[in-house]
């Protein structure tokens, strides 16, 4: 489902409030909101609070193109699984580059998990309504990796929620989730940040502060 609104948002927090309204059907179903750090965590907190759900993170990292690390050609998840975008093959990027870059990004994931777990142990998504939150999606590599990983963990329902993405990326993500909830699908699309007035970097300190403030998960859940 999609709400038609102007394709520019004052901030991540403003976008999260709009997403929470569109996700209202999941209120009362004890959803598990999983934010992709770092940028999406402030959004996840707003959405989890609005839906009376639990908040956690899903750790995935994009694999950037050679010479253009911001352009994702794949992603690696916390279990070390590498998800490669077909574009990587068309660009002639070899498997060794993908493996080396995935190993580098996996170290970042492991470092973050070591930071986060003492503060907030991971919540099992099995049997839960799971809502994966990202601020925006360009190629879909990172969010796609998160959805594939979580599908393996057998949630009752898997939802992806994000503010903005190009139409072709939305089409690629569609088969990976039971529901896509987004606010805008503009064309042309160059970068996520162009659709936010305030797109400040979310620092580690803010992530840790949010994690420290998360209440322990409630017992029990409702399935669809």
Order of helices and strands: HEHEEEEHHEHEHEH
CATH class label of the domain at 12-58 and 123-212: Alpha Beta
Strand order of the largest sheet: 2-1-6-7-8
Mean residue pLDDT: 91
Helix content: 25-40%
Approximate strand percentage:
15-25%
Lay out the secondary structure.
Layout: H1 12-22, E1 32-35, H2 41-50, E2 54-57, E3 60-65, E4 68-77, E5 82-84, H3 86-90, H4 95-116, E6 129-136, H5 141-152, E7 157-164, H6 167-173, E8 179-184, H7 204-212
Parallel strand pairs: 1-2, 1-6, 6-7, 7-8
Antiparallel strand pairs: 3-4, 4-5
What does this structure look like?
By secondary structure, this protein is of the alpha/beta class. The chain has a domain at 12-58 and 123-212: Rossmann fold (3-Layer(aba) Sandwich), CATH 3.40.50. The chain is 34% helix and 22% strand. It is built from 7 helices and 8 strands, in the order αβαββββααβαβαβα. It has helices at residues 12-22, 41-50, 86-90, 95-116, 141-152, 167-173, 204-212, and strands spanning 32-35, 54-57, 60-65, 68-77, 82-84, 129-136, 157-164, 179-184. A 5-stranded parallel β-sheet has the order 2-1-6-7-8, with helices on both faces. A 3-stranded antiparallel β-sheet has the order 3-4-5, sandwiched between helices. Helix 6 links the parallel strand 7 (157-164) and strand 8 (179-184). Helix 1 (12-22) runs parallel beside helix 2. The radius of gyration is 16 Å and the shape is globular. The model is unreliable at 1-6 (pLDDT under 50).
């Amino acid at each position: 489902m999609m709400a038609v609104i102007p394709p520019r948002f004052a901030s991540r927090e403003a976008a999260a409030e709009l997403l929470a309204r569109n996700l209202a059907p999941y209120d009362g179903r004890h959803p598990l909101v999983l934010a992709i750090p770092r940028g999406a965590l402030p959004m996840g907190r707003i959405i989890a609070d609005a839906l009376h759900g639990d908040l956690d993170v899903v750790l995935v990292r994009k694999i950037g193109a050679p010479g253009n690390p911001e352009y994702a050609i794949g992603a690696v998840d916390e279990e070390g699984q590498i998800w490669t975008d077909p574009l990587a093959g068309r660009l002639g990027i070899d498997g060794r580059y993908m493996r080396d870059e995935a190993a580098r990004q996996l170290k970042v994931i492991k470092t973050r998990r070591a930071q986060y777990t003492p503060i907030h142990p991971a919540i099992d998504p099995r049997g839960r309504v799971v809502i994966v939150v990202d601020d925006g999606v360009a190629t879909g590599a990172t969010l796609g990796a998160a959805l594939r990983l979580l599908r393996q963990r057998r949630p009752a329902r898997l939802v992806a929620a994000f503010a903005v993405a190009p139409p072709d990326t939305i089409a690629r993500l569609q088969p990976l989730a039971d529901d896509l909830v987004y606010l805008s699908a503009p064309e042309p699309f160059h970068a996520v940040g162009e659709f936010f007035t305030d797109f400040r970097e979310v620092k580690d300190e803010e992530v840790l502060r949010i994690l420290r403030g998360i209440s322990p998960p409630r017992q029990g859940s409702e399935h669809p």
